Amino acid sequence: MIPSIALAKFHSICALICMNLIQHNAQTEPSIGKRQIVRNAADALRRRILAAPAGEQIGSLPTLARELEVGIVTIQQAARILEHEGLLEVRRGPGGGYYGRRPQMADLERMLGAYLCGEPGSWREILDITSLLFNRLCAAAARCDDMALRRELVDLRGQIDTCDSMDGLGRLEGRLQDILFRMVSQPLFELLTRVALGSARDVEREGNGTDMFDLNAWRHGRMRIIDAIAGLDPALAHFEADRQNRQILAGLFGFE
Q: Which residues, 6 or more positions from 135, have their beta carbon under 8 angstroms from its beta carbon?
């Protein structure tokens, strides 16, 4: 479950994404004034949901329309936005109504992933995002004192050392990310990284830049990072992560 502070940072972009998705599928695009009314209604419903415990009913369709002084269709359109955000569940039949919920990581990841499909970033831009986040993640992981997780990370190091294929790289990189995010509880940080990595994998499947990727450099760079984390040295972990990221960018694009 995502903390409210993380949710607040995503609500604006989520609302815009959802409005774009809804309008794209609509038969007729509403006027600018109508869009603003729907947006305002969604904001009001969102505030009600976040002010109440998850799973609590915030009202029925007629009641909400009356209290917000808008039409039933406006409430329905606003509800679709909140359903896309993972904040609202509409129950029909006896005991039905509008019930608040809290979005899971998968809800936000799916939404932002869909947005990137419509507005694809460049391969360089995606690498920039993942690089900055990964540097911070490695430094934070080096402060983790969970011995079981550190042993798991060291065990993974041995598997990385023997990796000899791009398929193996993808699997091991995924495991590395999973372990690091268990060492560092930062849900918003994790969400951004996973979305960026998902976009990077999409680009990889298209074959953009992977023929220039140095598997050996990746393997040794990741092992140095793991050694720094296992040694509880945040500064060194950040340095090694940043150094490897720069090497990757230089190898793929000739950037220094």
A: 238, 241, 242, 245
